[in-house]
Amino acid sequence: MSEKIVVVVVVEVVVVVAVVVVVVVVVVVVVVVVVVVVVVVVVVVVVVVEVVLDRGMSVTALTCVRVRLQNSENIE
Hints:
This protein is mostly helical. It is 97% helix and 0% strand.
């Protein structure tokens, strides 16, 4: 009888360890996926903001140049 109990306990321990390993692997995979998604989103947002700011700055610079040209023409 004691041998059967030992076998059952060993099988239960192996099953519990296997379940814990699977859960840990799943959690690690989910965390890695979330981190990758967050990094991709941040990179996309930064690139879009830089492009928009670059365009905005270039538009602002062009507007300043036009105003200066108009002012210089008005002065002459």
